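Data availability (excerpt). The following record was deposited with the supplementary files.
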Amino acid sequence: MWRVGLCALVVLWSSVSAFADAARFVEEFSNLSLSSEELVDSSSFSASGAFPPASQIQPVDPITGEKFENVLVSPVKYFKREPSRKWRYVTFYRVKKVYDPISHLPAHWQYCHDNWRFADWRISTRYDLTFHSSISLGPKDLGLSAEVALNIAQGVTFETTRYLSAIPGIVAIHRPYLKSEAWRGLTYIQTYDAVQRKFSYYKPKNWLRSLEVYPDPFYLDYQKLEILSKVEKIDECSNYDPKNDPSPKHRREFFF
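Predicted structure:
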C-alpha cells in the first residue's frame, strides 16, 4: 500500500513541478525585452494588430523549413515591459495513425454464407492520454480545446459498438483494432510588434534559464478513437468477385 501511495505522490510531485517550471518560463518570457537578433522575421505584416488564425499559417518550421501537416495557436499573452508587443505559442505538428490490437475482444470468423451484420464488438474502455508541453501552463494555454484538456486530466472513456458486415465472396478472420491519432510536433513562440506592425518568431540568442529545449517538443496521443477490423482473408468462395474485394491491391490482410 505504501508503495502505491509513494508512486502517486511522485506522479503528483512531477505534475506540480512541471507546472511550476512552465509558470516560471511564462513569467520570465513576459518580462523580456527582445532584440532583433533574437527574432526570425516571418515576413508578415498586419494593420489590425491581430495575430493571423491558424488557417492562415503555413505548417512549415520557421527556422529549418521542415514541413508539417497542422498548426495550433494559443491565446495571446503580453510583454510587461513592452506594451506594444505581444506573443503566443504556435505549434506545428504531424498526425500519426496508430493501430493497436484490442486483446480483450474476440476475433470473429466470416464464412461464405454470412451476410450483413454477422457479428459485433462492444467496448467501454478508459484510456489515459499522454501530453507533453514544457513551456505552456497546460493544454488550454497551448490552444487545445477544453474537451481535450479535460480528457488529458481525467482520461477518456471510449464506449461504442462496431457492427461487422460480411465481405462478399471470402472466408476471413476479423480481429478488433483500436485506431487513434498521435500528434507530434514542435512549439515556437510568435511575437507581434505593434510599432512596426510586424510578426516574428522567437529565436533565443542565449537560452532562458527556464527553457531547456527550444523549440519545445509537443506530443498528444489517443485522439479520434474508432474500432477497425483487421481482416485476414483465408479463402475465396464460389461467388467471389474481384471487383467487390475492398482490400488494397487484393492483399491478404487489410483494415476494414
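Summary of structural features: The chain is about 15% helix and 40% strand.
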